[in-house]
Structure formats: C-alpha cells, structure tokens
Amino acid sequence: MKYPDEESSTLEFKETLPQNDQIIKTVVGFCNQNGGKIIIGVQNDGTIKGLNEDEVQKVLEYLDKSIYDRTSPPIIPLVYAQTIADKTLLIIEVSAGMNKPYYIRAETLERGTYVRLGRSTLRANADTIEELKWASRGRSYDLMPVYHAKMEDLDYAKIEQFFLSRKGSKNVPQAFNEALAAYNIITDAHAHTLPTVAGILLFGKNPEQFISEAFIICTRFQGIEGREALAAFDCTGTLFTQYKEAYAFVVSQLNRSFTIKGPKRLEKLEVPEEAIREAIINAIIHRNYHIKAPIKISIFDNRIEIFSPGSFPGPINKQNLKMGLTYMRNQAITKIFREAGYSEKLGSGFRTIFASYADYGLPEPEIHEGANFVKCVLPRDHRRTIGKHTKQDERRILDLFEQVTELSIGEIIELLHIPRSTVHRQLQRLIKDGVLAKKGTGSGTKYLRNF
Fold this sequence. Notes:
Elements: E1 11-14, H1 22-32, E2 36-40, H2 53-60, H3 63-70, E3 71-72, E4 78-84, E5 87-94, E6 103-104, H4 108-112, E7 114-117, E8 120-123, H5 126-136, H6 156-165, H7 176-182, E9 186-189, E10 192-195, H8 197-203, E11 216-221, E12 229-235, H9 239-252, E13 256-261, E14 264-269, H10 273-286, E15 295-299, E16 303-309, H11 318-323, H12 331-339, H13 348-360, E17 366-370, E18 373-379, H14 392-400, E19 406-407, H15 409-416, H16 420-432, E20 436-439, E21 446-449
Parallel strand pairs: 1-2, 11-15
Antiparallel strand pairs: 2-5, 3-6, 4-5, 7-8, 9-10, 11-12, 13-14, 15-16, 16-18, 17-18, 19-21, 20-21
Helix pairs in contact: 9-10, 10-13
C-alpha cells in the first residue's frame, strides 16, 4: 500500500529510524521554512512498510525531548504514532517557526542552520540565514534602507511618472514624501530619511552604484550546450528598464512565422510572447536581491533558461503554480510592478506561462529549484529532443554551485533527479577540468567549487 502523499519540501519519508542527526537537520529545515512532516516507516517510493510497535513506543518516550534539547531556539515537535492498513508509522510534525533562524545547538548558527530545497535538506549559507532573520521580523530585503545612499540618488521624475501611471490616478499625491513612505520607496533610519532597496532598484538614478549585482545578463548561445556565445547583452538601470531591455533581447533572438489573412500579414513568435514576459517579470520581482548574483537569461536552439537567484519564498510545486498559488518575497517591488501595470495580480504569472504554452501546443515549461536559485525553462521547438544524459547534466551540476560552496553526491542526485552513475561521471570530469574539488572519503565526501 502507498502513502497518499508524495515527498516534497514539506514531507519526507524514512523507511527506518535514522541513527544520526538527519532527523534533527530535517526538523530544523522544516521549521526554518514552511513546516512539515517526517513519516518513518515508509519507503522512498511511498510504500508503507511500518515499524515495530515496541520500537515506536521507545522512540515516543525520548524523541521530542531530544529535538527540544538539541535545537536553538528550542523546537517543540509533535511526535505521534499512526496506524495505516495495520502498519504502525511514526510521525514527527513541526510548524513553520516564528523565531527564525533555527539551528542545531552543537553546530552553532553559522554551521547548524538548515533549509529545505525540494525533497532535500541542505545547510544554509550566510545569505539565507540573513533572509531567515528578516522573515522572523516580517520584513523583506527590499524594505531595508540603503545606508550609503541619499535622497537625491532617487529620480523624482520617474517616481512622478509612476504615480501618474497608476490606474485611476490623475495627479501626483500632494503629500509626496508620505506617499513615498507608504510605497516603501523611502524609510526612516537612525534619525535620517533614506531610500530603500526597492526605491533604489525601481527609481534610482544609478542603481548599480549601490546594488552592484542587481542586473540581468542575456546571452544567445550556439546549439544546445552553451559553449559558444553568439550574442550577449547586460541589462542595467532600474528594474523597469532591465525588464524592457531583457524582453527586447529575447524576442530579437527568436524566430517568427508569417501568415496572410485577408489584406493583412500576421506574424507569430515561435513561443508565446506572454510567457516570455511573465517569466522575466517573475524573475525580477521574486528574486533574492541580497544574493550578490545577477539574473541570467540564456537562449539555446531548443530552449530559453531564466536563472533567478534565491529559492522559492514558499512551498511551491508545479501543480500549485498552475493553480496560481504563489508567495511574495519583495513586498514593495511586487506592489509597484503591479500598480505600474506590468503584472496583473499575484499568482497569475505562472498560470499564464503554462496556459499559453498549452495553447501553442509546445512542451510544458519546466521549473527547477536548486541551492538558492530557481530556473524557468521555456522550450522553443517541440520537434527537437535532447539526449537524456548529455553534457547538459554537467551544466546543471555547475548551476547548483552558483550559491553554495559544497554538496555531496547524494544531494546532487536529490536536486537534479539524474542517476548516480551520470552524476559520478560528470563530477569526475569537472574535477579533472579543475572546476570542482573533492574533499573527504566514503559517505562524508563533499564536492567544492574551484572557481
């Protein structure tokens, strides 16, 4: 018999009770994000095996106290037994924590903080830990003041243009500074009024002077491997400018077909224009601007890849995206983009992407969540196919090291869902090329970036 749900960012199966810290790590990862359950007595494929009832009773007597004593802030889990089809399961359940970041006390905050990425539990890096701290205070990074910026670094003509462009708006607000504060374009800090991160990114005269990696790199590659760049363009300036430039670049690199209908010649882009638009906007408004890395848009013969720094801000899977379920990372940026007419409402973006591709009869877009990044893949030509395990796997492995410094082979397999033999072969090639380095032996082996 199968368990009714599948493994996800909020559900993990264990066939037997682990004898190491994996349960503690997973509990911490759940608590740092959206809560979750560990079901012990279920195989990875969901088959219910059950546990010995005496063993379950013994664990019930100490496990909750062990988790409480070894975590900081202390985590109080709900530990209980459940019987399904005469099989006894052990359930460990935790809610999303209110005092993030949570960590394993003995490992300290810097080394003992863990998060869930898909079905994997990984050690959080410094950027993720900072974001967890803001989340516990109900703040997002785009609301933070830019301490080395001044009010004159804002372009007031652009701000006035935004106020006039809003639906139903005819005039610039009379209480101008109050309106800037209400939209979190400015904030008070240490007895001074300063631009926020959102203010600089959306209306700054020179945003890259203050947030250097907040731009978009667009590249058109030859073939499907990304070895030779045919064209490249860096989109800088405000986020509105970056969106317009990135969209124009992508569209310019794609093919168009033409049909004659009556006296008119109609042209059609090879992929839905609305899907391109929504994918770029989603990358801009949901990316993690605290991570010092740009958005990357790569165009290949058979696909468009949009790489955005930062993992999903909520428990998202493809089915939820199709239903319009989404979470907001950047409160001010999202609100201003919506009121400026660039996005309709929360959750509509991914629904539009999937629906437009279905209308075109193209293969379904793919959404990949990795170690602090999200990648949206928009197929170009459904008649082309890619070999199941080519050098593309090598690129996918390297993508994981954009935001983390080390991973085990098991973590790579969990994140990419490709066979162990393929991962091992690609890792050996990357080590030989000097791109990655290896440390440790046996089950403790880790791979580190060397670039």
